[in-house]
Amino acid sequence: VDGRVVEQLGTQPQQPVRLTVAGENLVRLTVTDEGGSANTTELRFILGNQPPEVRIDIDGNRSFYRAGIAPSYHVTVSDLEDGDSESGSIAAGRVAVNFAYVRDEEELAQKLSQFEIDPLVKGRELVTRGSDCHACHREKEESIGPSLQAIASRYAKRSDAVEYLSTVISKGVSGHWGGSHAMPAHPDLDGSQLRAAAEYILSLVKERRAGTGLGLSGSIEFNSHNNDALTVAIDSIVKVDLGTHYPGKYLLHAAYTDNGAAGGVPPLRNSASVVLRDTTQYASFFDGGLGYSYAKLSDRLSLAMISAPEKLGEFAHAVARGIDLSGVRELRVKALAVTTMMTGGELQLRLDDSDKVIAKGIVNPQAVPDATEPTFIFDLSGIDGVHDLRLGSVVTEENAGKLLFAIALLEFVLDED
Description:
Elements: E1 23-32, E2 38-47, E3 53-58, E4 72-79, E5 83-84, E6 95-102, H1 105-116, H2 119-130, H3 148-155, H4 161-171, E7 173-174, E8 182-183, H5 191-203, E9 217-219, E10 230-235, E11 239-245, E12 249-257, E13 269-277, E14 280-281, E15 292-296, E16 302-307, E17 315-324, E18 328-336, E19 345-351, E20 359-363, E21 370-371, E22 376-379, E23 386-394, E24 403-414
Parallel strand pairs: 11-21
Antiparallel strand pairs: 1-2, 3-4, 4-5, 4-9, 6-12, 7-8, 10-11, 12-13, 14-24, 15-16, 16-24, 17-23, 18-22, 18-24, 19-20, 19-23
């Protein structure tokens, strides 16, 4: 607890752990081999503080955007210890709301990682655990050096307080607080770490804010994707005209870090996000599946290939998880099968883990498949909520172990279109 070993838990491979002390609890596992070499890992648990709940409500579909439409959104935050944003006990400035356009999955992951980090929590980790600061400084009590709150109180009113403390931490200082003790330099900390540490120290006497961003309520506009259009047409092995597609996504993200709890229990952070994409999607839309593979025909075109495993009766499919079908009128599918390579077969649409067939159609093999027009138009009216979409075919004696067909494009038609 708080960096001290307070209990030896045991040596069982599956060791029961009972945590009873409020605050930060570290469960440490040390493994020693027969030669005496050892390695250690830790799990961190926070007791005595319930994590906050963050919710984003958006006017319209939560999976797809429509160009020219600016839907409204509303963010709510509640926390057992801090209160809630609706009553004002959690100030709007404490909630970080961000909206960004990303061009691909890698950029999406980077943005999510960036928005998830609270610089004050990062600074607290550095000051209390990740550096040698805690050897001389406590949050409230004087130790070898002054308390962190005393430091914050002395410098909080300076207009350059963050920059000043960052420099002091980096270069070291002596004589500012009397006595003969000197704070050493910290050349191993980079600029972002120094700033995070300084901001955390100053937050101990200043009102915490989440930084710049959107408000708890407002509207979002989709005007950053226009320069990323892809127009895809191939006339060789297959004849495919997929029209214009915008591969980028819009990310709406909200996060809140609570105040911790009594007794020095550290703060916790939670978040919510909505990812909105173009209504036209290619093979990269799928998250995987049984018998699913990804075939790249060109820089701009990839196909979702569906192959049947050997076990009869299984559903070979590609799956797209967590798709909001509220307000989706139709799903238009372009699927194809090349005579010399694929068997074709019945394409079925199923939702979640259900065996119920929502819609189906036959993909007939062709020497040069023509997917310039939708192969199927599936009626989705009346289906609401978030679902996993599965597109595929049942394994039979005739197709077991063979390549069935390819899905080239999915187009989701919204009620407003």
